Amino acid sequence: MKRSLFLTSIYLINTVFVTSELFSSAEKRDDWERIVGGTKAANGSYPYQVSLRLYGVWHFCGASLVTPRVILTAAHCVDRLKPEYFKATVGTNQLRAGGTSYAIRKVVVHENYDDYIIKNDIAIVFTEDEIEFGSKVDAIELNDEPVEKGEDLVLTGWGTTSYPGRLPNDLMEIDLKAITYEDCKQAHESVNAVFETQICALTKAGEGACHGDSGGPLVREGRQVGVVSWGIPCARGKPDVYTKVEAFMRWIENTLYEDDEDHLKYLNRRKTNRH
Asked: Of the residues 51, 59, 110, 121, which is catalytic?
């Protein structure tokens, strides 16, 4: 497949940035305030949600809080992006108000990330300072068990509400259903490869992820199963594709241990307490 055709067929969902024109009127905000087919999330309802922002201002990707210093996102969000160029904002469901921003110390992109076929699309971001937890800020547990067809999943993010489109101010949520690897692979056979290290979700046309949702968490019963990676822009009735967290648990644990084994101890404590 020629690269030019490839890029017009699928999308990495992080290409639209906030501009001064974005919130020009209350009437326009009302039109934009929904993920494609989703609803506004209640304040404080997703304390693990992170907004990655260029220079701490312009949202470009979602992410999730894993430990007080560790954030999980998509590789395509931060690949070749220097830590000093962005910050992580937590503790708010609004892009224009509230929350606390933290400087980034280090970015680790999966060593086998392939941006051509969009494989191993996962990265870990380490904050400079420890993130303060509270009622609106907390870590998400990572899923290490298989996800079956038809299971209920929840996606949250500040992605655009249409294609092309602009970012909403409020965090949006949408209920999705897991589909099988075989069904997802078949749905995208003429577009791009789907790998067993990915998980797919879908409900119907008009519901799904869009630009700005990239890197954000797909969750089952309070545990993160996926990281938003790519899809057909936007909510056209094809399944969205997510990096499967379960398939990368060993890589995540090794990365945390190599940086500071305290990160891994925190992760393992949460896992032990769960059982």
From this structure: 121
Residue-wise over 128-164: b if at least 16 C-beta within 10 A, else e? eeebeeeebbbbbbbbeeebeeeeebbbbbbbbbbbe
Same domain, 151 and 209: yes
Catalytic site residue 121?
yes
User: Do 93 and 45 meet the contact criterion of CB atoms below 8 Å apart?
Assistant: yes
Domain-located, residue 5:
no
Q: Is 275 a catalytic residue?
A: no
State pTM to two decimals.
0.85
162 is catalytic: no
Query: Domain range for residue 97?
Result: 46-139+248-270
Catalytic residue among 59, 76, 188, 211: 76
pLDDT along the chain (275 residues), means of 10: 31 37 32 52 94 95 97 97 97 94 98 96 98 97 94 89 69 92 93 94 64 87 96 71 97 96 91 73
Of 110, 214, 240, 263, the active-site residue reads: 214
